[in-house]
Amino acid sequence: MPLEFAAKTDIGMVRVQNEDTVVVDDALQLAILADGMGGYNAGEVASSIATVAIQEEIESQLQEYRRLQKPEAEMPVRMWLMQAVRQANSTIINAARREPEYRGMGTTLVVAWFAPEGSVGIAHVGDSRAYRIRDGLLEQLTRDHSLLQEQIDAGLIRAEDAQFAMNRNIVTRAVGIDYQLVVEVHQHEVKAGDLYLLCSDGLSDRIGDSDIDNIVSDAKGDLKMACTMLINAANLAGGQDNVSVILIQVPENG
Q1: What pLDDT, in 10s, does the model give residues 71-94?
Q2: Domain tally, the chain
Q3: 137-140 and 106-114 as β-strands: parallel, antiparallel, unpaired?
Q4: Collapsing DSSP states into helix, strand and coil, what is residue 165?
């Protein structure tokens, strides 16, 4: 299943450095987006460590599975993704313990792996998101691990007011903070024509879902243009944070 990938990251209009990291691996059909946090350049270090660790872990598991000639239909997609994110978590924590200036660094992340058996596994921690556009309809596939989402779930704030909430950037989970990390992983059927979007909160905090849908539609299938247009829209809306986007197009003929 040949996929088309496009990715772009931008410092935004306010921040002095970009702590986001985006990785696309065509061979593995893997996309990773990490939004780092921490003092100095620690956020950038955390997001970079996470993406490398996940990429290496998935590649290693896949090579060993194929060496043993196991059937692709039985590939443990969700388990491998969970292990990969937990490996990234441990690697960040251990790095922070060795280097005092990196203490407290961490990252949110979202991962999409289009497995050889035909599904897509999506893992996420924090408020980096995954969306899918299928038959013209935009659907958020992840649920933010954030204080704001918990307040929405508890009925303390309306979803339509969330964009204006002062606490919208407080996450309740992050990679690299605690060894006991809970990773959320889901597996979805992939259909011909699907378009998947991964983004940092620098996008989703600035523009709403309907705007995201309209911008992608206006790009008329040009994924690189769509990434640029989405980032431009976030920056025009204030650009308070780094902004990162990955788009993955499944071909119409499957």
Answers
A1: 888 889 999 999 999 999 999 999
A2: 1
A3: unpaired
A4: coil
Domain presence at residue 254 = no
Expressed as residue numbers, the domain containing 85 is 4-249
Do β-strands 4-10 and 30-37 pair in parallel, antiparallel, or remain unpaired? Answer: unpaired
Of residues 95, 123, 90, the one with CA closest to residue 109 = 123
- The answer to whether 252 touches 193, Cβ cutoff 8 Å, is yes
Q: At what angle do helices 223-236 and 209-218 cross, to 10 degrees?
A: 140
H/E element, 150: helix 147-153
Q: At 177, which CATH number? A: 3.60.40.10
Residue 220 lies in a domain: yes
Nearest Cα neighbor of 227 from 46, 19, 28, 22 is: 22
- pTM for the model: 0.95
Residue 226, domain member (yes or no) = yes
